[in-house]
Structure formats: structure tokens, C-alpha cells
Amino acid sequence: MTQRNVPPRWDRTMQQRLARGEAAALGELYDRFASLVHGLAHRVLGDEDAADTVTRDVFAHIWEHPDAYGPQQGPLRTWIAALAHGLAVERLRAAGTAALTHGGAGSAEDLEHQVRHASVAARADYIVHAMPVPLRAALELAYFQRRDYQQTAADLGVTEDEARRRLRLGLQLLATAHDTETPGAPPGIGGVA
To answer: Distances from the Cα of 104 to the Cαs of 37, 99, 108, 126, in angstroms?
Structure first.
């Protein structure tokens, strides 16, 4: 196994602790990833209560099925995000299908469009929060504060070439949010679950 395929020690240790049934491990996992799970669920569902339910469901699933994650699958963070995304999309589809069954407005195609749109938005959020801080800082300056690359360079204290590089890489990463299937990404994060 190559070094880059070796999961981080924390991920392996956490998986082992969960498999042993350590409640403290679940608490640590919740503290570390609950905001990520809730944010992804809220982005897909657009509803605070539904996002709370998905968050509870994700951590209940992890507790009830500790062997569902294997460190060889990639980072624990990515696996948890994929699980949250999949459960949120499942809930969105179920709610939309129920509404259509009871004579709600729209069609099955409208529902799938809504699911795809929510999935892309959730993937973009995940990408932004997972990207290295220097890339995220450059994008935030350019987007939220409407800085060009020269102003971004000055604000970050880097060269203009470095600012351009960071912006370009950040935008390239964000562009993958529209991919229907990103190589190497777990189901639900790289595409619509």
C-alpha cells in the first residue's frame, strides 16, 4: 500500500473505538463533524428541523453500524459527508414523491431537477469547507469582498502570481461540484445519490 493510500491515524483509531462501542468516541465524532453534517443536510433540504433529523440519523447510523466505514474507503470526514448527503437526498426525494402522490404541483422531472440542484449546492459547500485555507481565503476575498487578484494578493500578503494560482485552483475545485461523477469521490459526494 502506498503512503498516500494510508488513512490518517485518527480515522483508523476512531473506527476501532466505534467498533468497540465506546460512547466517548461517538461524542468526539459528533463534536468534530456535526456542523458539517448539519450544514450539508440543511443545504440539500432547506429546512432546519429536517437537517436536525438527518444529523441525528447519520450519527445513529454510525453508532449502530460502526463497521460500515473502513479506513481504506478514504477519509472519515468524506465518508460521513457522503452518508449525510445520501440521507438528505433520500429524505428530499421521499418528501417530493409524497407531495406528488398527494396531488402537489410539479412533476417527477421537477423533483429530480430539485434534487440535482440541491446536490450540486451541497457538494460546492463541502468543497469550499474541505479546501486548504489559503485557497478558501483567496476565494472569499474575490467573491464576498469583490477583490481582483491584485487586491487579493495585497490583502493576503502574497505575490500576484500566487494569488492568481490560488484563485485558479479554488475555482477549478469548485467547478467539480457540477460533475455528475467525480473520480475517487464516494457515492453521494461526487454525484447524485
So the answer is: 29, 5, 11, 31
What's the pLDDT tens digit per position in 117-151? 777 777 777 777 778 888 889 988 888 889 998 99
The number of CA neighbours under 13 Å toward the Cβ of 8 is: 7
Total residue length of the chain? 193
Dihedral sign from CA coordinates of 128, 46, 119, 114: negative
User: What's the number of CA atoms in the CB half-sphere (13 Å) around residue 49?
Assistant: 0
Q: Are 82 and 189 in contact (CB under 8 A)?
A: yes
Query: How many angstroms separate the CA atoms of 41 and 150, rounded?
Result: 36
Residue with cell 463533524: 33
The predicted model scores a pTM of 0.64
